[in-house]
Design brief:
By secondary structure, this protein is an alpha/beta fold. 43% of the residues lie in helices and 17% in strands. Helix 8 links the parallel strand 7 and strand 8.
């Protein structure tokens, strides 16, 4: 395919990337004038492609890190399709101007907000959910009427190639283009004056993206990560909590930004909770007693670099006094790390300081809710908070006293799947919101419009010169309005 018309490129040539960007800039003006129907048509084409290529998506995820097909169906395909369906149901309404009220001081005017696309957007996707986390912001960007360049992760090359093929087959490259490449490619892209950048990844790289965006005063959405706690109090249903925590931690082998990163459990129920967790791990991943490594329901660490990092966290935790309560098996050749629960974990160990992004679950105990709150709040704001309790008072106390990007009560992860719940972080865990209407707004300029009548208006009475009468009216304004 001729590179000037391709919807994908793997070149690191800054000139070529600039040409791709310029072509989208030229197209953005026409996209801005479109109604909601052409946007909906693009989303329907995307939905149809996902439906027709389910097997290819499954195969790509398995090739990159042995992700089970059922997990791909739920976390990569179904989640994307749900976002498309929700957007299509509401798109006409979202694009309509929104009327606002008129204060008494501005009687005679009318006001509304109308929504227009920001222009050309850069979507930088991560490797852990490499398909969904490229598609999800694309849905919002297209719904808002933007042109997009997608930069997939080089750590999942099979998925990156599939995304490129998808865009070649269903999109005009002046509207959606995939640019494959490494850090150098990302650097070239970040040097361009995009109108919005949507980045999903680590806080460290998020800071680099934000610094680059500042050069052009480009708006950003940063979906980052952090240490998301799961708190289990003495009133919790321990079997139910164990199932949900193990699922949230075990899916994608723990390589999930909103996975429970560590467990805070009331000291009175720790022992029983660990027994329930062991039973759930066996039921989920080792029902035949052949070991988790033989399970077709458990993914692998994405590459050797990340395997060494996670294995290093496990080793460092033990050096600092932690005990392996459950699991602990690692296999470098397979990039396999067994679901592992650690107790007696020192707060100064790396596993309590860094985001784990793997199937290790450090456990610490608390005596009082205040103590648990203090421990969580001593760290940067988490992306997610998980509260397991049957006490409404305890639920309320924890939700009110622990700032976080989002939260679940008696559940993990599923707030991410709710299209009417804005998703995002707080401080170190992110900036901005995604999904549903919040995602549409992130990619839109909310243009405020005030319409004044022609001729005599209330404000003209306040025009210069500032005579005694005008000053008297200003006094009334300050007093009564």
């Amino acid at each position: 395919m001729n590179p000037t018309t391709s919807a994908s490129t793997s070149t690191n040539d800054a000139t070529f990337i600039g040409q791709v960007f310029a072509r989208q800039q030229a197209r953005a003006e026409a996209l801005r004038k479109e109604g909601w129907e052409p946007r909906a048509a693009r989303l329907r084409k995307l939905s149809h492609w996902l439906e027709e290529n389910r097997a290819a998506i499954q195969q790509a995820l398995y090739a990159d890190f042995r992700k089970p097909a059922a997990e791909t169906d739920v976390t990569e395909i179904w989640s994307s399709q749900m976002e498309i369906k929700h957007t299509l149901r509401h798109l006409k309404q979202w694009t309509q101007p929104t009327k606002v009220g008129t204060p008494m001081s501005l009687v005679g005017t009318r006001g509304w907000v109308q929504y227009e696309p920001k222009g050309v957007c850069l979507l930088i996707a991560p490797w852990n959910y490499p398909f969904y986390l490229a598609i999800d912001p694309l849905i919002s960007a297209l719904a808002a009427g933007n042109a997009c360049i997608i930069k997939p992760s080089e750590m999942t090359p099979t998925v990156a190639a599939l995304l490129a093929r998808m865009c070649q087959e269903i999109f005009d490259p002046a509207e959606v283009t995939v640019v494959e490449g490494d850090k150098e490619t990302a650097t070239h892209l970040l040097a361009l004056p995009f109108n919005h950048i949507f980045f999903t990844g680590s806080p460290q790289v998020g800071k680099i993206v934000m610094r680059a965006a500042a050069e052009h005063l480009t708006s950003v959405t940063l979906e980052l990560g952090g240490k998301s706690p799961a708190l289990v109090d003495e009133t919790a249903d321990l079997r139910d909590a164990a199932e949900k925590i193990v699922w949230g931690k075990g899916i994608n082998a723990g390589q999930t930004c909103v996975a429970p990163d560590y467990l805070l459990v009331h000291e009175a129920v720790q022992e029983q909770l660990l027994k329930e967790i062991q039973a759930v791990i066996t039921r989920f991943y080792d029902p035949a007693g052949e070991g988790v490594a033989a399970s077709a329901s458990y993914a692998r660490i994405v590459n050797q670099g990340h395997f060494r990092r996670v294995a290093g966290l496990l080793e460092d935790a033990q050096v600092h006094g932690a005990t392996i309560a459950l699991g602990g098996l690692v296999d470098a050749e397979q990039q396999f790390i067994e679901p592992t629960v650690l107790t007696d974990v020192a707060p100064t160990s790396r596993i309590m300081q860094e985001e784990i992004f793997g199937p290790l679950l450090p456990v610490r105990t608390f005596r009082t809710l205040m103590g648990a709150v203090d421990e969580v709040n001593a760290r940067p704001r988490p992306l997610a908070l998980y509260v397991f309790s049957q006490s409404a008072d305890n639920q309320r106390y924890l939700l009110q006293n622990i700032p976080a990007g989002g939260a679940c009560v008696n559940e993990t992860i599923l707030h991410l799947a709710h299209p009417d719940l804005p998703f995002g972080g707080l401080g170190n865990s992110g900036l901005g919101r995604a999904h549903g209407h919040a995602g549409f707004l992130s990619f839109s300029n909310e243009k405020s419009v005030l319409k004044q009548r022609v001729g005599r208006t209330a404000m003209k009475a306040l025009y210069p010169p500032y005579t005694a009468q005008v000053k008297k009216m200003v006094g009334w304004l300050l007093r009564f309005f």
